[in-house]
Amino acid sequence: MGKQLRLSDLRKGQRALVSGIAADDFTASKLRAIGFTDGTEVECRGSGIFSDPSAYLVKGVLIALRKKNADKIKCIRTESDAS
Amino acid sequence: MHQNGERCVVNKNTASAVTVAFAGNPNVGKSTLFNALTGLKQHTGNWAGKTVENAVGRCRRGGREIVIYDLPGCYSAFTDTAEETAAAAFLRGKTVDVVVTVISATAAERGLRLFFEIKKLYPRVILCLNMMDEAAHEGVVIDIDGLSKAVGVPVVALSARKKQGIDGLIQAILSFPETDAECVPQETDVNTRSHMLFLQYVSCKEKTHRNIKGFIDKVLTNKYTAFPVMIVLLLFLFWLTITGANYPSELLSRLFTRLQNVLTGVFLQVNIPPVLTDFLLNGIYRTLSWVVAVMLPPMAVFFPLFTLAEDCGLLPRIAFDLDRPFCACSACGKQALTMCMGLGCNAVGVTGCRIIESPRERLIAVLTNSLVPCNGRFPILMTMAVVLAGAAFRSGLAEAVSLTACVVISILCVFAVSKLLSVTILRGVPSFFVLEIPPLRRPEIGKTIVRSLLDRTIFVLGRAVTAAIPAGALIWLAANISVGDKSLITHAAAVFEPLGTLMGIDGIIFLSFLLALPANEIILPVMLMAYLGGNTLSAVPSVESLSPLLAGLGWTKITVLCVMIFTLFHWPCATTIKTVKKETGSGKYTALAILIPSVVGILLCIVMNFLLLPWKDGLTL
Prior knowledge:
The complex is a heterodimer of chains A (83) and B (621). Chain A is α+β, with helices and mostly antiparallel strands.
């Protein structure tokens, strides 16, 4: 518990709290506007046909991010689900 | 932007009218609410970025006129994608009496964040919680009164789709205090405030959905099932279109023939000169009736089906699945969305490209959009597929398979051209990508079908009249005016004959594609007119009788195949060209948008022709 991760490290079904965004101002403000603000709980919902992009449930909305962008979001694992 | 002009009109003409703007996150139902209030038919779809332009509408409630602006959705009032600037610029103009911030009750926190941003820009604001029905279904409970006191502005809860609670919104708009609400500077930032309010007033019983929607979602995004399911879905869509269009097409065809006989009789009785009768009936009327009989039914069936798929939220899932290949082509996954829109209409697809943030990726999407066959090109593709398959396969399945193959080929071509563009003139790396995947929604089947059927039918009829009449007149004249010993059309076709022959088609076919520039719908009718212009064939040829007709004109299976390829890839229609010019603002890119599909089509036709040439004798119709 409490290990620092990148959002892209999350596997399907895993949840984490956003702890910061390590990106340029434009990308960071964009990500925050979409919902990735500090302290927000995010759940990874897995990827589509290919392993990239992945879908994340954040603030009640399902958002798809490419791995490259999800790498920029730092987070802390809260619980590990069944998988 | 054009809203400046509209604003002046509003100020002058409607002094006593209340002006309202709908702002909010994408896909929260602003346009649905707008339609419910104004009775207008803004197109709505279950995906983020459907509305890319401001719309304006009016309604009269409680004795006062309300002017409503429907703004494109945005995530933030302070960032800079094309549609967000449009919304933010409008708000900064401060010309409306009230801004209604529409937020989804299912994603209240994110909506509240935008609400606070808008409130900073614009203090006269109402908070409107839409999708209350869906939120209730998901177990979300919101303390409306508490929220209203906390944010200090009126809060209205409603469901625009179910038309519940809309009167409450009207009341809130009409009773909004006349005096300017003061702009209170907020100390805490929008993120914290929205989060705190969310925790305080919104409660959610966690529900695990193991229902049909969850299953559909899984199938649509599963590694192994997604592609087969999408292909089968497309097949089914085309099969329904072909089978559904069969009967009305024959009916219309018979009807038009009968009407022509009646008209001929009438024209004879009132002593109209035979030349004029011939011009009006065999030139204009015949082209028009062919366009309507052959082209209208498949379009009238396909478009509602397509709208249904759009309504339930299928498109963003396709974009999600296809992002990886687009990324590999240094393009944006949202191009899949604009590509799907292109299946409906390329001009709409090109405008839709505004949802792509990066200018480079947007240009790629704009330039490749007309490589995807639009609705107007399906009928000729279908007819050609029937001719190719022969009478033995009149089940609709063979045609559906060939149409699906056409779409798959065109998608592969989009990938190839996107890649080519991104390593040549539009060099760059894939940028930031974010795509909202909305929940699957049960579409309002009856309403959607009726609405899009009517809209589409009227639209296509309008286009048929404006494009087919002049084309019909022109071709009749060209076929009947002779210079030397040949008609004008023979002369014109002779110019394109060498290129046509090289491409496996002929001069007449090439000429028809050129003449069909105003609308792809008229390619086939124009072609038949050009072939038969001098004849007095009065009946509208049915699809079955077309095969021997074309064989008599020297067509082979190679000709049919090359016509199909050229239908897939040739210059965009005039409307699309105009739209590209408007969207890119550049003559150079407009020229490219015309050149790219044309070059692709001509090259592919030449290759196909030469590959199949050795078997030419065995490929007769």
